TrEMBL record:
The chain crosses the membrane at residues 12-32, 60-83, 95-117, 123-139, 151-168, 174-191. InterPro entries: Rce1/LyrA-like_dom. One of its GO terms (biological process) is CAAX-box protein maturation. Keywords: Membrane, Transmembrane, Transmembrane helix. Residues 94-184 form the CAAX prenyl protease 2/Lysostaphin resistance protein A-like domain. One of its GO terms (molecular function) is endopeptidase activity. The keyword Ion transport does not apply. This is CAAX prenyl protease 2/Lysostaphin resistance protein A-like domain-containing protein.
């Protein structure tokens, strides 16, 4: 009763709760679908071991998809005003941000939503559940911020998710999606108005 009463008082919090439950439901479904039930932990370990190798090339379709994702990322961001034109000097903390954005979101999210949940030798059909979980992750309980609820942010997150999935499937290596995710987020936060957007949203609360 307490939780239902809290949800009625705060619909935004309720939506984050629903997203969190749905996210983990999709994660479990993806794990069971990809690894079987009970989970084949040996197969998962083998997949993760293979994913850490450097790529030797990329499939043409994956390179095209990655390019389209980058185009959507930039064009939608600029046209909607979610991204500003690159500025110099960057926002404070850019140097330290190289490390923090590499670790989270890039390495953490790519290992979880790509290397663990998507088989590198599979196709995009195997990536549907992980992609859906990736989107819900950005509106779950640990992302309770107006920026993460902005449809423009979610559109750009979807473009990054599709691009990173294509890079992973097309190279069978986790490093290209990590690089794409890392550079995209770092440039957005420190050069294209992302940090100011978070600060302005906080000031409005």
């Amino acid at each position: 009763d307490f939780y239902f009463a809290a949800m009625r008082r705060d619909p935004v919090w309720a939506s984050h709760c629903v997203a969190t439950v749905a996210e983990w439901g999709l994660v479990v479904a993806a794990l069971v679908t990809q690894l079987g039930s009970p989970l084949n932990w040996v197969a998962l370990g083998t997949r993760l071991h293979q994913a850490i190798y450097l790529p030797t090339g990329i499939e043409l379709w994956a390179a095209i998809t990655l390019g389209v994702s980058l185009f959507v990322l930039v064009s939608v961001g600029l046209l909607t005003g979610f991204l500003s034109l690159p500025t110099w000097p960057p926002a404070p903390g850019a140097l330290a941000g190289l490390l923090t954005t590499l670790l989270c979101p890039a390495v953490m999210e790519e290992f979880w939503f790509r290397a663990v949940l998507v088989p590198a030798d599979g196709g995009f059909a195997h990536a549907i559940l992980p992609l859906a979980a990736f989107m819900l992750y950005h509106v779950d309980l640990i992302h309770n911020h107006d920026v993460f609820r902005d449809w423009r942010f979610l559109s750009l997150a979807a473009a990054i998710g599709v691009g990173c999935t294509a890079a992973f499937l097309g190279t069978q290596s986790i490093w290209p999606p990590i690089l794409f995710h890392w550079i995209s987020v770092w440039i957005w936060i420190f050069f294209c108005g992302g940090k100011q957007l978070f600060e302005n949203k906080n000031d409005d609360v």
